[in-house]
Amino acid sequence: MAIIETKDLTYTYPGASKPSILDVSIKIEKGEFVLITGPSGCGKTTLCRCFNGLVPHFYQGELKGEISVASIDTLKHHTYEMAKHVGLVFQNPENQLFALSVEKDVAFGLENVGVPREEIRKKVDWALNLTGIYDLRERSPHEISGGQQQRVAIASVLAMEPEIIVLDEPTSFLDPLSAEKIFEVIYDLNKKQGITVILVEHRLDLTAKYTNHLIVMDQGKVRLEGNPREILSSEETRLIGVGIPKATLLYQMLKKDGLNLNNSTPLSSEELAAQLLEALKSR
Amino acid sequence: MIEAENVHFSYPNKVEALKGVSITIKDGEFVAIMGQNGAGKSTFVKHFNGLLKPTSGTIRSDGVETTKSSVASLARNVGFVFQNPDHQLFSETVEDEIAFALKNFGFEADVIEKRVTWALNLLSLTQYRKTSPFLLSGGERKRVALASVLAWDPKTLILDEPTIGQDHEQKEKLRQFIMQMQTQGKTVVIVTHDVEFVAESNPRVVLMKEGKIVADGIGKEILTNPAILELSSIVLPQIAQVFMKLKSLGFPKNIIDIYEAKEIILKTLESKTGK
After folding, report:
1. Region at B8 (left for phi over 0; alpha for psi -120 to 50; beta for the rest)
2. Mutual orientation of helices A102-112 and A146-159 as an angle, nearest 10°?
3. Label partner for A54 (CA 20 to 30 A): which of A132, B198, B257, B269?
4. Would the ipTM clear 0.95, i.e. be above it?
5. CATH superfamily entry for domain B2-236
6. Could you say which DSSP state residue B144 is in?
7. All structural domains of chain A with their residue ranges
C-alpha cells in the first residue's frame, strides 16, 4: 500500500481567488526518494503542507478530494498526531526555530511525545552529529547563520525518526559542500532505514541523482510524474521551465549532434563522464 | 567604485567576522562573492552601503568614506537586497512595498507609478500588484524585495543570495537583468552559493574564507580549481566535474560553459576516429 496517496486533491487558501493545488492525484510508495519540482508558486510548498495536515488545520481554507498519509486521513487527524509519522522541514528555518538553545530545539519534538530523558539525549546527540552542528548545541538558534539554522531544522526533524521526511528546499542557505553533505545524510537514511523522503527542489544539478520518483508541478497541477531519466529527457519538462541538470543537458546536446552514447539519460556528472569514457574506449 | 582597505569587523559579541579585507570594485563590474557559511560574505557587503561600519580599516563608496556618511544617503547609490526577504518586507501590498523607498526619496507620484509598473513587470509580479507580500511564495517574496530596490535605480546593486528559491526561468531572467545593468554601466555585486548560476554568468569571482579573501579572478580559472574551491566549501559546477573526470584522457580541465564543452567533446571524438 502506498504510504502517501492523494486523489483529486484541490486546495484554496482563505481569501484566495483560485486554488493553489488542483486535482492532484499521486501515489508515493514506502522507501521512495521523491523529488518535487516546478516553477516558483506552482503549489509545491502547499502540497507539502497537506502531508502533515498543516493544510487545512492550520491554514484553514478549503480542501477537497482525498488524502491519506501513513494510512491516516489527515483531514480527520490533527497535525500533532501526524508529527510522529511525518517530519517537515520548512523553506525558511526561522519559521521553525523557537527554543533558547539549539539542543532544546532539537529535543522539543521528542519531549512532546514523551520519550524518556536518556533516550532524548541519545537521539539529540545523534541528530546534532549527523547534521554537523554538535558544537553549536548551546547557542541560541537566532544568533547563528541561516545555513546553520537550516541544519538545526533538519536535525529537529531527524531526531524524531519519522517514517516520512518532507523537506522544502532544505539547504537553500547552505554552501554547496554543506548542502551536498546534508543530501548525502538524507539519502543514506533513505537507503539504510527505508525512510520515505519527499524533497522539494529547484536545483536538480544537486539532487536529481538521488531520486527514483520525480514529480513536476506547474500552476497547481501535477504535469509529469515518474522515472526521472524519462521526465528530464522530455521536451515538456523543459518547456515548463524546469532547470535540467547540466550533465543531462550536455548529454542531450551531444546525442543530437550524432554522438553515439547509450540510451540511459545521465542525472549526474559521474554518469555522464562514465558514458563518455565508454564512448571513447569503444573507438 | 567601492574601495575596501584592510577592513576588520567585530560583532558586539567579539566575534571577528572580517580579518583584513581589501578589494577594489570598479564601476560597471559584476562580482560574485562566494565562500562557505560564516566566511564573512554578508558581513562584508553590508559595509558597502554603510549598514555596518568597519572596526578598523576604511570603505569608500565613490570616494566617500562610509563612516562619514549616513545609510540613507549611501542607499540612494547602493541598493541592497537581503538574503531573507522577510527581513525587508513590511507593506500591505506588493505595490506599496515597491513604492515605499521611492516615496522616501521624494520622487513625484507619476514617476513612482511608472517605476512601480516597470519593476513589477520586470520581475513577473504584475498579477500580485494588490496582494500582500506575505501571501506569496518564498521565491516570489524574494522578487518583491528585489523589485523594491531596483525601482529606485541605484548605481550599485548588492544582492545577497539572489537565486535562493528561484526557479530556472527566474534565474535566467535575473542573469539577463544583471547583463542589462552592466550595459548601463552599473555595478552588480552578488553573494552566492549558486555555482551553476556563476558558471553561466561568468562574473569576477571572489572567494572568502574565515573573514579573508582567499582567491580573486575569473570564473573559468577559480571554478575549475578543486583545491581552492574545497577550501571555501564550494563544489565544482557540473560541467567542470565532467571534465575533471575526463582529465586523464587529455581533455582540458578549465571548462565551465556547456557549449564549449560540447564542441571540445565532439572535436576530440572526431580526431580519435581519425577524421
Report:
1. beta
2. 30
3. A132
4. no
5. P-loop containing nucleotide triphosphate hydrolases (3.40.50.300)
6. H
7. 4-228, 245-283
Residue window 129-188, chain A: list those with CB within 8 Å of chain B.
Answer: 143, 145-148, 169, 172-180
Nearest to B98 by CA among B142, B139, B144: B144
Cβ–Cβ under 8 Å, residues B28 and B179: no
Cα A105 versus chain centre, distance: 21
The strand pairing partners of B190, in sequence order, are B32, B159
Set of cell numbers at residue A215: 514529480
A32, HSE (Cβ side, Cα atoms, 13 Å): 22
Q: A189-200: per-residue pLDDT in tens?
A: 999 889 999 999
8 Å CB contact between A197 and A186 = yes
Does residue A103 sit in helix, strand or coil? Answer: helix
B2: left (phi over 0), alpha (psi -120 to 50) or beta: beta
Helices A269-281 and B258-272 cross at an angle (nearest 10°) of 20
Closest CA to B211 of B55, B13, B9: B9
Provide the percentage of residues in chain A whose pLDDT is more than 70: 100
State the residue for C-alpha cell 548601463. Answer: B184
In A, minimum Cα distance to B11 occurs at A143
pLDDT digits (tens, 9 = 90+) for B8-54: 999 888 889 999 999 999 999 999 999 988 899 999 999 998 999 99
**Element at B71 (helix H, strand E):** helix B71-77
Domain ranges of chain B: 2-236
pLDDT score, position B255:
92
Can you read off the three cell numbers belonging to residue B250? 587529455
Domain range A4-228, CATH architecture: 3-Layer(aba) Sandwich (3.40)
Decide if A60 touches B, using CB distance below 8 A.
Answer: no
| Interface subset of A 227-266, CB within 8 angstroms of B | 241-243, 245-247, 249-250, 253-254, 257, 259
- Pairs across A and B, CB distance < 8 A: 142
The structure's pTM equals: 0.85
Residue A123 to chain B, least CA–CA distance (Å): 26
Is B258 in contact with A178 (Cβ distance < 8 A)? no
Picking from B35, B138, B238, the nearest residue to A205 by CB comes out as B238
Confidence of residue B275 (pLDDT cuts 50, 70, 90): very low
User: For A21, phi and psi rounded to 5 degrees?
Assistant: -130, 145
The answer to whether A92 contacts B193, with C-beta atoms less than 8 Å apart, is no
Strand order in the sheet with B212-218: B78-81, B156-160, B187-191, B30-35, B204-209, B212-218
In the sheet that holds A213-218, the strands lie side by side as A86-89, A164-168, A196-200, A33-37, A213-218, A221-226
Q: Give per-residue pLDDT as tens, B76-98.
A: 889 999 887 877 788 899 999 99
- For chain B, list the strands marked E by DSSP: 2-10, 16-25, 30-35, 56-61, 64-65, 78-81, 156-160, 187-191, 204-209, 212-218
Q: Please give the Cα distance from B18 to A179 (Å, whole number).
A: 24
pLDDT reported for residue B99: 94
> pLDDT at position A283, please?
66
Distance in angstroms (rounded) separating the CA atoms of residues B240 and B227: 13
pLDDT tens profile A161-190: 899 999 999 888 888 888 888 899 899 999
